[in-house]
Design a protein that fits this description.
about 230 residues, alpha/beta, Rossmann fold, about 35% helix, binds adenosine-5'-triphosphate
Length: about 230
């Protein structure tokens, strides 16, 4: 279980997240939605210990993450797919997957070959350089790279941004398959359609503060949340 208590995040003097509290239960699927600049990426970076300075407590499976380095958080089972995907452009698809296995993990991991079978659209591209893939192909590779280490928590930052609807539809199945093995999900998104299909409950963030938390049914019943805080 991931527990975030009283989290504040800063870039230098700039105070971006204000007293955030949220939980992702073991195997749970949670969305965080909000406008551009609301603080979604900053939360995920804070969870990975990668970027902002933070105050407050972040606990993963009962253990405070404190100053644990990002690579060590990955070894604890937290996989992060950042908004810019961070595909290694000079390596092939296969090599990108292979390199993702180089963590000293104690739990079983998939092989690149097995992972390519789970992501059949990537199979024919396995010898292609990451840098020449389309945005949708890169996003699939980023997901596959996260899946290979058999994570217990997947942090996804706006995976649908800029992608064609047909790719986004397929990605719902990919995310559900990864999470089907008990992996929890914290999905930051602007797409309500995608978020609903991948998660059970939703938090809304506006100017670094959570302004709504609940099940999707409650979100639908909460008048004005969309108009005031999301703008869609
Ligand atoms: N490295 C940084 N240094 C200073 N300010 C930053 C930095 N990164 C983000 N910010 C600011 O922090 C606030 C939150 O940004 P963040 O990227 O977390 O928002 P977001 O909800 O993920 O939106 P987007 O979808 O545009 O990425 C914004 O005002 C942004 O300008």
């Amino acid at each position: 279980m991931l527990e975030v208590k009283g989290l504040h995040a800063f870039y230098g003097e700039s105070h971006v997240l204000h007293d955030l509290n949220l939980t992702v239960p073991a195997g749970g699927r949670v969305a965080l939605i909000g406008r551009n600049g609301a603080g979604k990426s900053t939360l995920l970076k804070s969870l990975m210990g990668a970027g902002p300075t933070i105050q407050g407590d972040i606990r993963w499976e009962g253990r405070s993450l404190g100053t644990i380095a990002p690579y060590a958080r990955a070894r604890l089972g937290i996989a992060f797919v950042p908004e810019d995907r961070r595909i290694l452009g000079n390596l092939t698809v296969f090599e990108n997957l292979k390199i993702a296995r180089n963590h000293a993990l104690s739990r079983p991991m998939a092989t690149p070959e097995e992972t390519l079978e789970q992501f059949p659209l990537l199979g024919p591209l396995k010898d292609r350089l990451g840098g020449v893939l389309s945005g949708g192909q890169q996003q699939l590779l980023a997901l596959a790279r996260a899946a290979i280490s058999n994570p217990r928590l997947l942090l996804l930052d706006e995976p649908t941004e800029g992608l064609a609807p047909v790719i986004v539809e397929g990605m719902v199945d990919d995310v559900q398959r990864i999470c089907g093995s008990g992996c929890a999900l914290l999905l930051c998104e602007q797409s309500l359609w995608f978020s609903r299909r991948c998660t059970d409950c939703v938090h809304v963030i506006d100017s670094g503060r959570l302004v709504f938390s609940g099940a999707w049914k409650e979100f639908d019943a909460a008048k004005g949340i969309r108009e005031r805080h999301i703008g869609i």
